[in-house]
Amino acid sequence: MGRAKDIIVKVIPAKIANEFVKKHHYSGKVVNNSTLHFGCFLDGNMHGVLSYGCPLDKSKVIHLVQPCLWNEMLELNRMAFDEYLPKYSESRCISVSMMLLRKNAPHIKWVLSYSDATHCGDGTIYRASGFSLTGYSNASMIELPEKYWKYNGGGKYAHRMTLQAKSNVMYKVMQQELKLNGAYKQMSWYAEQLGTKVIEGFQFRYIYLIDKSCKITVPILPFSKIDELGAGMYKGEKITQAERHIPAIVAHLGEQPASSREGAFDATVSLKV
Q1: Using an 8 Å Cβ cutoff, are 216 and 65 in contact?
Q2: Does residue 272 fall inside a structural domain?
Q3: pLDDT above 80 for 10
Q4: CA 209 to chain CA mean position, Å
Q5: Is residue 45 predicted with pLDDT exceeding 50?
Q6: How is the beta sheet containing 45-53 ordered, strand by strand?
């Protein structure tokens, strides 16, 4: 693990965490539901943040693990690191944060998180950290002309659901026109109206059990399912399972060597850091 083991993880104020997330997370945005923030420090400076909080709609996910009361789960809803940290830093920081949760918040039984392949990746870090893959969905994005909407701190991307939820007059008119027999039109229709393009990709749902006596109630998918879907991505670029075995790419992704990587990704194996 090298210098990653020297990283110190500790609770930090929301203000400090949010400033870092806005600067280093690909979205440029914080999640208002985040209530617990960990800073990741190396050589006396903070180079990463993990933010945990309540899911946007807990009623839709609380059933994924049982037994579980309303206050017994969290979502890892922001993870941002700068370029200073060495390989394996992300899995190291996740591991320490889980240990801190187990020690200081023993009522928390499990953690939920999502990986957005359209901008980040298909969940390499989660798989390496012992999370289980439990679901996926098409997370197609629209690349927006800047004149319509500044997103991601000046970027040009928006998820369809976010676009539909916009409350200004332009989108209200669009929403009224989009419904056809109760169903929304395809993403391509949005893109045509805005003179832009659709960014294809998937979102993956991962679960980590802190309390091993709990059970995941939905099927645990093999990681090979990502490649069966043709959904393997890294920073918005498609990447296959075969390519992940190429040494140069393995090093770039910060994964373990191909000979041992699958063991580290096995959801039945304890968190490895």
Answers
A1: yes
A2: no
A3: yes
A4: 17
A5: yes
A6: 8-11, 34-42, 45-53, 73-81, 110-116, 202-209, 132-138
Segment 156-168 shows an average pLDDT of 54
The pair of three-digit structure tokens given for residue 155, joined into one six-digit string: 């970027």
Side-chain-facing half-sphere of 28: CA atoms under 13 Å? 9
CATH number of the domain within which 25 lies? 3.40.630.30
Tell me, what DSSP letter sits at residue 155? B
Under 8 Å between Cβ of 233 and 199: no
For residues 123 and 222, state if they share a domain. yes
Global pTM?
Answer: 0.75
Q: Are residues 8 and 99 in the same domain?
A: yes
**Which among 18, 7, 3 has a CA at the least distance from the CA of 46?**
7
Nearest to 80 by CA among 125, 22, 126, 36: 22
DSSP codes joined into one string, 78-91: EEEE-TTS-TTHHH
Which residue range forms the structural domain that includes residue 16? 2-138+202-265
**In Å, how far are 2, 185, 268 from 27, measured between CA atoms?**
30, 26, 32
Token readout for 128 is 């390496």
Report the pLDDT value the prediction gives residue 185, as an integer from 0 to 100.
Answer: 58
The residue ranking higher by pLDDT, 241 or 116, is: 116
Sign for the CA dihedral angle at 66, 67, 69, 73 comes to: negative
